[in-house]
Specification:
Layout: H1 18-44, H2 50-61, E1 63-67, E2 71-78, E3 82-85, E4 90-97, E5 100-105, E6 112-115, E7 125-130, E8 133-139
Antiparallel strand pairs: 1-2, 1-8, 2-3, 3-4, 4-5, 5-6, 7-8
């Protein structure tokens, strides 16, 4: 007579051979690799990624565009998705899309997006590639 706690166990072993056990473990390993390959890019591209840190610094502290022939242009961002530059002469909207900062202005109503570098903080200066060329940005 079988023990009551063992009543639900199958009469045959879970793995009929060492080869079957190896095959099952290998299948579990492959499934884990596939899930990891799908999930890792999602984690890297998540809003908390390093690009988002740079974009948060820019949009909360503001930035300065350093343009040859124009001097320093102060850009002020507001939490409601608007910004101003050149003492209010340039007005526009902004939004973060993935790893980019997308903007429209009263001079350029078509939205443009620029990929910002990773891990930049207040006081950092970096080059930004835009549709109009390369500009230098300093985070306030």
């Amino acid at each position: 007579m079988r023990n009551a706690s063992l009543a639900n166990l199958p009469d045959r072993p879970l793995f009929s051979s060492p080869r079957q056990k190896t095959k099952t473990v290998w299948n579990i390993f492959h499934a884990a690799v596939i899930v990891g390959a799908i999930a890792l890019p999602l984690v890297v591209l998540a809003p908390g990624a390093a690009h988002a840190d740079t974009l948060k610094e820019v949009t909360t502290k503001g930035s300065v565009l350093v343009l040859e022939g124009f001097g320093d242009i102060d850009v002020v961002y507001t939490p409601d998705g608007k910004f101003t530059a050149m003492d209010g002469q340039v007005k526009g909207t902004w939004r973060i899309v993935g790893e980019t900062l997308c903007t429209t202005t009263n001079f350029q109503p078509v939205e443009t997006c620029a990929l910002y570098p990773r891990d930049k903080k207040s006081g950092d200066t970096f080059d930004l590639v835009t549709d109009q060329g390369v500009v230098q940005i300093r985070i306030k």
